[in-house]
Amino acid sequence: MRALDLSPLLKSTIGFDQMNRIFESAAGNNDISYPPYNIEKISEDDYRITMALAGFSEDDLKIELDNGVLTISADGGEEEAEAERYLHRGIAKRAFTRHFRLADTIKVLGAQFENGLLMIDLQREVPEHLKPRTIKIGKPAEVKKLVDEDAA
After folding, report:
1. Which of 70, 31, 77, 38 is nearest to 55 (CA)?
2. DSSP states of 61-113
3. For the residues 100-128, what does the mean pLDDT come to?
4. For residue 114, what are the β-bridge partners?
5. pLDDT per residue over 16-32, tens digit each?
6. Cβ neighbours of 35 (radius 10 Å)
7. What structural domains and CATH numbers belong to the chain?
8. At a CB cut-off of 8 Å and minimum separation 6, what does 7 contact?
9. Bridge partners of 39?
10. What are the tens digits of pLDDT across the range 34-85?
11. Is the backbone peptide bond immediately before 35 cis, with ω within 30 degrees of 0?
12. Which 8-state DSSP code applies to residue 60?
């Protein structure tokens, strides 16, 4: 497999030091397809992760947010007696862990579990200081005054 070289991109960006590590881990990660999931863009700032979890209950699921990583997991273990009653088991209920790395501006609003689907709602909240703004061009004294006003 070819290595992805991001050095040309990193020359013109500031504050994306972890981006190279994120891409390297994604390139080396074998994508596990269980459980299946969708990531939807509901609106400009709203997103939803939907996971198909047939056979699981709310009590089986664990959802954590730690240091910008959303982790959804479940223990698929079951009683031996229950396993023996099935002649054919086509609905998988096996243990899984799925990680989603969230941007700093993404907030988890909540989760709901209905009809075998886990839905996690997310929203982008861009702080005022990160929103685009127009920078005026002025004389040195005016620029100092504007900087002092912004600091206050």
Report:
1. 77
2. EEEEEETTEEEEEE-----HHHHHT-S---S----EEEEEEPPTTEEEEEEEE
3. 90
4. 117
5. 555 655 665 565 555 56
6. 19
7. 1-31 (no CATH), 33-151 (2.60.40.790)
8. none
9. 49
10. 889 999 999 888 999 999 998 888 999 999 999 888 999 998 766 555 667 7
11. yes
12. G
